[in-house]
Structure formats: structure tokens, C-alpha cells
């Protein structure tokens, strides 16, 4: 941490900063400059909150040098985290893992048709919401527990693993009994009660980036999960708020190489929510693989024009199959491969 | 709702749109144009989700004309909502109501000193967090129930009403027994489990705007509360994400007149979180009153440089007293008055 | 400047950073830490570009401690700049100076009617565009030189000073002969050819903040003007890009106290472009004065519904007169006063 | 265009809107609704500015249905624009065209070394700034005309075509004599004097998206160029302002498929300025090709750590060569190919 003084800070103001640092049990080191002085803090282990220093007289700003997170950082654990699933599937290694399915589980016929279609095209995870966070109280909110049962049925029939979203701690209690991966959605990224509960489950967690969250904040939310004891976290870029309604959310693919540099956790991309229109889903899904994503989450609906939610951003099965072919070639171009579905026993 | 067709849309594509609208039980009205055609929807009451139309061939875009919210709108209820409290205090009328206190309840001595100081300067509500949502798992998370008891004690001694934040449904169970207003923080604005529970309490709710929420989304979250039966909602602008780290959050005061136009609900401003630095709190608090805010929420700490959280944005008691004087004159300039503390019995 | 090393940086990587700093003629000071080391730079006078350091192996990031601007900073010149005009008017002192008039000069009748109306209500500057930067090539682009002549005529008749925009260096040549203040618009804030030419005029320059410019970038653009020798610069906040189309541009009033802290230059606010709708102009104009703005620039049109551009954000004369009354009271509440028009000789 | 009325708009207010539309020579069509009425405008050809309607009493909002641009739209010209260069090179067809070189021309040795390196790796255009727009007046501003001469020399020796930036109309006069493509930078995207001059040159123009420009605004700036008679326009995505300093500019690759849908003009991507750090340049360059970009502009410097500007975002020659190999495979995966350098005569 570095405390930058104002240009006209007095010697006594600087001494007061030094004293305040020492009161915190830290060591201060003076950095005099031609224009202004600064005081460096030696030995801060990252868990000390030194922000009160910024209120002292003569202080211009306090700059954090150490990142505020710990267990999620690549410096803490240099090797990438690999999350292994029954059947040999792994997220975080060389494979690019594709999760696909409808926005919401609507009926048995719909989810089974979707599951078969995405499996035939090469997906290895089935996605589908049973509990839907909706901006309006008057929108379809999901089938609830019935939806979870239908997802389990689809898994049984197709061999696909299942990922679905929990909205609150009670939802985790329920979903950990049905799903293979528990999703925490973008709106819940800073729902700390939910994060703490999800940190205690034994199932891997897919944590989506909030639509106004910095990469640092995403990593800090993941830190909540690791701090509670769950090491199996998959991050997901799904678009952030931008100023141009024309591109809806702004899919921030640069976050992928940035997360890979800062953290050992795998990161996938969701080009469906991130673009909001099927014309842009295919190019951006390809781009995510090219940028180094460890996986994709794509909305596919057997009959998109009849979907109860998000129909306009869902691919039809044949569009998804064409996308998978391109992704396989792009993965190879960068030395990876798209994970293949296991054989159904 | 208006379905805009592509320039080269065929007659059969237009007929398909018309048919789809009629299948939904709505009436379609053709709008031919020189450049392109559009199809208007007559009789949509706002609860129909017509987004599937945007996926039909030949459709360029679907424009929503009716706002997606209902009970929060000023068209639904032309007169402004006034929330009345014991002792004659009201939020939403002519009075400008000031809530002040520390970021977090830290100790009995601290909260009592803060309560006396803000009451003496003219605040009518005491704020203070017992449960703190913190970006990092390693930051101080609040005193919990003990903090609520201390707030109740401060109310008893000073006559101030109490506002404090609930992080989850269980928190509402607890806080509705202690506080006069239950706060839902910016990070929880789209926590729908929490909104549904808070919609069932009999206590008024202060709903803060999420840091990347549009005004429409803020109103839709308030709609959740009204839809559950709680009419006593106070909105709060507290700054949104911008691109300039220099001004931290961007306090969007334009939201105040905009909310007043679109909704009957009162709206206050929080210049402390909205600016992040005490140098900017006073000017922006004044600006909020001048923009027509129905109240202010201001962080005041008896000894800001010793605060456990957010010290740098807290005013000292004498700075807060000076601010109150200016706010009284500004309120008068626009035909309002700052609410005065009731007599302590 | 501070060079932060990666956690696992080797001693030889640190030595290479130290050597690179010394090659630049600067002094390096080592800051060892428990988690990572950093290297401070002593004696950098702000004009050295040390960014190449961030490319060296083992370097995590380079943090700039010294601000990149110089002559615009309050540290360089602690007393606020006051710009004096004939007739005793001054911008940057205790007075709040109001500039008003139509978006564009449209005709002699229109500009004279506007000038009389704003003068009667208490404005001291007449604004009006003769050269208009328009997003579309098919929009009205202004009357050009004829517009300047009409502005001069309005000044002669009303005693108002004139401010109008230059779009390019040739425009400055022309406008410095007609106007009292030359405006550089938001879209031109980083048009360096224009800034260099405007730095050479003897007329004061009103520099608007670009719609995606940080406060630091605004100050750096002002630095171009000062570096060319023009000390009479007025900054202007006019709204920045945000994510909510509902509030159009986001009027960032926090920039006002921030600029006052960082710089000695005066800053005014333009709530008309900053909000885009007359319902929001009045509250936000009041808010700007309460936040400490040194002036306002407000669009007023004699008949807003007939304006050739920006009609929806223009106030009618009676609305402007009501606003002026409120602003006078708000200015008094914070110890300032609204400047009064001089007597017409 | 659609004029949406307030819910309580009176019949006379609606009649006034109808009358105003007819005064403009357009046809009004009434759209009564259960909640509110709207008035559609039939026969507006896009060049009429109907914004004054939004100021009429009872009007809630005016929605533009027709896009504000014309000649740049794909509806105007369904086939994609292909820009052909001597030697058979074309931008906008199946080929992906790579432009590479240093940020600024610094010396003859530097630009020749860079040109040879990028040509050997497969680039077909040499980029390099002779006139540099710099945020600070104290930064290196480029070699000017001398830089243009060095670029021409490098072309002669390597056969590479040359693209370089013009800052003002006088710059276009000069650069059109030296360069094969004239670049208009992000900061100049709405410099209309420059756009008008560049619309009159016979050389193709590369127009970069402004850092806060919507895609619609980018297309409107291109419309300025087409309206002046220059049909050979290449658009360029180079990152927009976001809220996360960690990813610097946010490279908005979704703009690529969106532009391809809305316009016939080719669009390339600049991952160097768009990410600001060489670690992210390679993944995002690959992602741009996968997203469908018609080309890349990449900063390559023979010795990045010695660059006078932007060293940290420049690739070293061997990094660029590795990138080119990956891009060739990705282009093939989506049915395109990377353009190969012509034989030097």
C-alpha cells in the first residue's frame, strides 16, 4: 500500500501518517519526491483495511498495491484449477466444455427435445433454469422443483451433466441434490448470503460476473466461495453494462485472458445473454473460444420462436450444430479441443 | 408495442407477424411506410410478453411502448405517495427528511455519540449498518443482532427513527422487529427472494438503486415490493458505475426528477456512497436537495479517522451541522423545508 | 511513479527495473514487501514517459503518482483563476455567471427575441451556435458567419456578452473577431489542432468535457491551452455517457467539487445538453449551483416547439425566469451571488 | 416515427400532434390503445427532423423507427463493399487483411526493421503514426512530414501498403500524397471538418470508432464520408470506455457482426489499443478474426521495450508471427483466408 501525500503536505502531516501506519502494526517507509512525498507500507498482508489513512490531513490518495483477494490468485496457486466430473470430463484443462440448453425448463417435452438436440451436436452439459430471476414480477418465474426433476430426467436419458441456477440459500439446499454444477447468476454475484451457502456445498459452482462488476470484484466474490471451503469454482463472463443499447450487454472477452493471468480458476463465456440476439451469438461464441475460454454456455431451444423467455437469443438446434463444428476447428487452431460427450451407459 | 419490419420484409412475413399477434389474443394494426412497414399492437395490457415476435423472419425490432411496470407508475396513481411515521414525520410530502449516522454500528459508545451528534444537527433518522455487505470476505461484516439492539437503544435515547439494512429474508424477520425502515442495499436491488419477503413486511422499505441499474429496473424492483402488498417504498439514488475512477460512483441526480415524473414514490439521495470522499459529500448533498430529493442519507461518524469502514466518506459532526444549515436554505429556495426532529418525550 | 513487481519476480528482474529507471536519469528506491516488492521512482518531474517499464519481465503494473498535468493544477497555482470581462463581470470569483440562449442562431428575429428574454431574466452571456457539430450530415449545420453577425448585433442591442462554438482552427480565426468567449465543444475536447489554435487566441475559451472524458483528460486538454499561452480557460461539465438511455447523458456534478480540488480553473455546468429534456433542466441547473458551479449554460428559446434543433431541451423564457429566481436564493445559501447584467449604455 | 402519447393525453393534444405532423408534409396515422394512444408517421423519408414533436403537450416520447443514416446501410446497398488495391489486395471480401507496425514512426532504422518483420510474418499493410494525437501536450507528437517520407520508403522497400493517421484537413492534403489508406482516429470520429475533407479524397479512409460512440454514431460519421462522395470506407473497432480500469478500453467485438448486419461497409479490429497490454493482444486478435472481422490492425515494434509510445501494447516480431499462424487457421475455420503479401517486383 502506498500513501501519496499532497504536494504541500507538512512534515507533521507526514509524521502523523507514519504514526498511524505503525499503530496498525505495520512498517512505514518514507519515499520523498521532488514534487510530493509518499509513504510506503511494508508488511501489509492484505487483510488489513488501511482505508482510514485516506482521511488524514495532507493525504492525496491511498493506492492499493497488493490485490485484495488471496486464494483465487494465481500467485497463491500457480497451476490452473481443473474440476473433474464423473465420466472423465474436466473443466479448466485443455478441453473446451460446451453447456447448452434452453433459458428456462418449460415442459418435459421441451427439455428432452432440447437435451437430445444439444447432445447430438456435441454439448456435454445441459443448462436450463428452474428458478428464474426476472426483472419484472409479472414475467414467467420458472417451474421450480418440478423443473429440477425434469432436468434430472433429461440427464438420465442423455448422459448430459446438468447446470442450473440457485437464487437463494434455500435454493442451494434443493439444487445440490439435482444438479452437477450450481449456477450463481449475474444479479446474485454480490449476494453474500448465497455465496456463503454455496461455499459450503460439495458441488462445483459456476459464478457469473455481475453486469457492472469489475474483474477484481468477480474474483472477490469467488474468494467468498473459496474462503468457505469450496475450491471448485468456474467463472463466467456474460456481458457488462455499456452505453450502446445496440449491442445490449457488452461481452467483455478481454476478461478471459485477464482472469487467466490473475487467477487459477477456469472461465467460460455466455454469448447468449452477452449479446441478446441470435445473429450475434454464433460469431461471439467462436470469438470466446479463440480468446481462450475454457467453455461456452449457449442457449438452444428446440423451437426458439415459441420460447417462454429469451427466445430471440436462443439458437435453433441446426444453428448450434453448425457452431459446434466451427468451434472444434478454432479450438484446434490454438492447441485445445472441444470436449466430446461421454457414451451413454 | 410496435413490431418494426425489415425494409425488404415480404407480405407473407408481415402476415405471419399479424397472425402471431392475434394468436396472443391481441389486435394488430398495420402501419405501412415508404421505407418499411410496422405492425402496431392494440390492447396489450403490459402483462403480455411479446418478445417472441422479435424472432420471427422479417422482423427488425420490437419496440415497447407501454412501460413494463404498473403500480409504481404515476399514471397508475397520480398523487405522490406520502409515508407517515409516529410523531408526525412524513416522507414524500413537502418535507426533506435527513437520515444520518455511521456506516456501521461499531460499539455502544460510537452509535450513541453519533446519534446525539446527528440529532443535535437536525437529522430525524439514524442510519447504521448491523449487517454489512462487503466486497471482500476479509472485511468487517457488522455486529449483527447486537448492532440492532444498539440502534434500538440509540432510538430510545434520542427519539430518532432507525433505518438499517437487511441482506436476506432472514434478516428482514429480525430487522422488522427493531427498525422503522428496512433498507435494501444497492447490491441487493435484484435479489428477488429478498424483495418478495420485504414486500410482506409492514415496515416501510428503502430501496437503493443498483450500481448498474437503469431507472426502469429500479422501478421494476419496487414493483416487486408493491406487488407483494407493501405500498410504503422509498427509493434512493446512490451512484452508478461510470468510467472515471476519479469520481468513483457517479451520483446520478437526474434520476430524481425522472423518478418524480415516472412514479409516485418518494426518492432520496445518498451522497456519501455516491461520491466516496467527504470533500464531495457536502456539495452533492446540497445539490440533491436542489434537484428535488425527498431526503438525504448521509454518513456521519463521531471520529471519522477511526471508523472501521468508509471513514473517508464520513462527515465529522461539525461538518454535518454546517451542511444542515445550507440544506435548510436550499429547501426554502424551492418551496420545501427540512424536517425537524420531534421533541423527545 | 511506482513499479509494482509480480510476487515471484526474481532479483535479476528487479535489478533490470532499477537499471532502466537509472538509464532514464531518475533515481530508484527499492520497497521490499512481504508479498511482493515495488520500486519507487524519485525525482520524476512528470514530463518523463515511464510507460516502457510496464513491459519489462516481472513487472505487474506501473502506478502513476504524480498527476500528468501541471499548469492547470491547484498545486501549481493555489489561487483560483478569475477571468475578468469589460463591464466588471468575472468568472471564477464569488459570482455565479449565467449564459443562456438558443441552441442555434436561426434568424435575426429569433436571436434578438432570445437575447432580450434571457437578459430580462438575468443572464449575462448570450449563447447560440453559428457553426453546429451535428451527428448526422443531414441535420441543420448552422448559419455560419451570418450567425456570428447576428450574435454581434444582439450584443450591441442588449449588452450581453457572447459565447459561441468554433469547430476548427479556421473557425477560431473568425470567431475571435465576434465573440467574447470561444467555446470548444464536447466532441472537440481532444481535437488537438483546434486546442493549439485556441491556445493562441487572446479571448477566453470555454472547454466542454467530452462525453467519455475523465476529469484527468479534461484537465490535460486544458493543459494544451495553457501550454500555448492562454490562461483564461473555463471548464464545463455537460454530461457523460452512461448506460441508461432514460437519463440520456449523465450530468456528472461531482466533477465540479473534484475540479475545484484539483485545479484553479473555474467550472460551469450545462444542464440542457446534460439532461436532454426541459423537465430535468431546471432541477439540475439548481443542483449545479448548489454543487458549487461557477456558472450555468442554459438553452432558452423564445418558442421552443419551433426550434430547428434541441427544442425539447430548451426552456421557454418564463421557465428560465423562474429558474433564475431559485438560483439566486441557492447561491446565497452557499455564500455566493448570481451575477447581474450590467446597465446598457 | 412513432409519437407515443401520455396515458392521460387529451383528444385535443392528440389532434395537435396530428396537425403538427401534417404541417411537416407527412401523413399521421392514429394508433389508439387501451393504456395510451400513439400516432404513427407514414412517409417520413429519414431526412425530416421530427424531434420538435417531443416538446408538444401530452407527448411522452418520440420513437425513431427509420435509422438516421442512409447510404451506409445494408438496406441501401445489400452487397458488401469491397475496396480494391493495386496488386490484387481487397478489403471487404473473403480475405482477412492484416495491418501491422509500430505505434509511431520513430526513425528510419526502426520503421524499416518493423516493416520487414511484419511483412515476413504475413502482414500486407504497414501502420505507423507520423502525426500522433496525444492526451498530454508533453508527450511525443510524431515526426510529421519526415515520418510520411519514411513510411513511403518502407513501402518501396517491402511492397507493403501504408496506412497512417490524419489529424486535421491540412493533414489529409499531405497524407493523401503518401499513404494508401488515410486513418481517422477514435478521438476524431466526430471531427466534422476532418470528415468532410476526408470525404473528398480519392484514397480509402479507415474510420475508427470513438471511445464513447455507439454503432449508430459510427455509421453516421461514415455517412459524412459517403455523403461527400468517398465510397471506400473501412470501419474499425478499437475499444470503448468501460467501468473497469482492469481491462482498459473494452474491445466491443459484438460491434463486428452488428455492423455487418446494419451496413455494407467492411470492419476491422484493433486489439492493441483495445486492450492496452500485449498479453491480451494475441487472444483478442484471434477473437476478432473468429467474430468475423475483415481485418486486423496490430501494433508491432522491433524492440517493444524501447518504443517511444505504447510499448506495453506492442507485440515483438516473433509474437506477431505466432499470432499470424493462429489467425490463418481460425480464418479457415470460418471459411475465409488471411491475405498474403504480394510479391515485391
- Give the radius of gyration of chain A: 23 Å
User: Pairing-aware structural class of the strands and helices of chain A?
Assistant: alpha/beta
CATH architectural arrangement of the largest domain in chain A: Alpha-Beta Barrel
- Classified in CATH, the superfamily of the largest domain in chain A is Aldolase class I
Number of strands of chain A: 15
Overall mean pLDDT of chain A? 90
Helix content of chain A: 25-40%
Q: What amount of the residues of chain A lies in strands?
A: 15-25%
Q: What oligomeric arrangement do these chains adopt?
A: homotetramer
How far do the termini of chain A sit from each other? Answer: 56 Å
- By CATH reckoning, the class of the largest domain in chain A would read Alpha Beta
Task: Show unreliable segments of chain A.
Answer: none
Helical stretch count of chain A? 10
Write the H/E string of chain A, N to C: EHEEEEEEHEHEHEHEHEHEHHEHE
Q: Mind describing the biggest β-sheet of chain A?
A: 9 strands, parallel
Morphology of chain A: elongated
Amino acid at each position: 500500500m502506498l500513501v501519496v501525500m499532497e504536494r504541500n503536505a507538512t512534515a507533521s502531516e507526514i509524521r502523523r501518517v507514519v504514526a498511524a501506519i505503525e499503530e496498525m502494526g505495520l512498517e512505514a517507509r518514507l519515499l520523498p519526491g521532488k514534487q510530493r512525498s509518499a509513504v510506503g507500507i511494508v508488511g501489509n498482508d492484505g487483510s488489513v483495511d488501511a482505508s482510514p489513512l485516506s482521511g488524514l490531513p495532507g493525504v492525496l490518495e491511498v493506492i492499493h498495491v497488493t490485490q485484495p483477494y488471496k486464494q483465487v490468485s494465481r500467485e497463491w496457486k500457480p497451476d490452473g484449477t481443473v474440476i473433474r466430473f464423473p465420466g472423465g470430463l474436466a473443466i479448466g484443462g485443455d478441453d473446451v466444455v460446451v453447456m447448452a440448453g434452453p433459458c428456462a425448463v418449460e415442459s418435459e417435452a421441451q427439455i428432452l427435445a432440447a437435451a437430445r438436440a444439444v447432445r447430438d451436436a456435441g454439448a456435454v452439459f445441459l443448462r436450463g433454469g428452474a428458478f428464474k430471476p426476472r426483472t419484472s414480477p409479472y414475467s414467467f418465474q420458472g417451474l421450480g422443483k418440478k423443473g429440477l426433476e425434469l432436468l434430472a430426467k433429461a440427464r438420465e436419458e442423455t448422459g448430459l451433466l446438468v447446470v442450473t441456477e440457485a437464487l437463494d440459500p434455500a435454493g442451494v439446499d434443493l439444487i445440490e441434490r439435482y444438479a452437477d454444477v450450481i449456477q450463481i447468476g449475474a444479479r446474485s454475484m454480490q449476494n453474500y448470503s448465497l455465496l456463503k451457502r454455496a461455499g459450503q456445498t460439495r458441488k462445483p459452482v459456476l459464478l457469473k460476473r455481475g453486469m457492472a462488476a469489475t474483474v477484481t470484484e468477480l474474483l472477490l466474490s469467488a474468494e467468498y466461495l473459496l474462503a468457505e471451503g469450496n475450491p471448485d469454482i468456474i467463472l463466467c463472463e456474460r456481458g457488462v453494462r455499456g452505453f450502446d443499447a445496440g449491442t445490449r450487454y457488452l461481452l467483455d472477452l478481454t476478461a478471459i485472458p485477464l482472469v487467466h493471468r490473475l487467477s487459477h480458476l477456469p472461465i467460460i463465456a455466455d454469448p447468449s445473454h452477452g449479446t441478446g440476439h441470435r445473429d450475434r451469438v454464433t460469431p461471439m461464441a467462436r470469438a470466446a473460444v479463440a480468446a481462450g475460454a475454457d467453455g461456452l454456455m449457449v442457449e438452444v431451444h428446440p423451437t426458439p420462436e415459441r420460447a417462454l423467455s429469451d427466445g430471440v437469443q436462443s439458437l435453433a438446434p441446426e444453428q448450434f450444430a453448425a457452431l459446434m463444428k466451427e468451434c472444434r476447428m478454432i479450438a484446434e487452431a490454438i492447441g485445445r479441443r472441444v470436449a466430446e460427450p461421454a457414451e451413454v451407459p
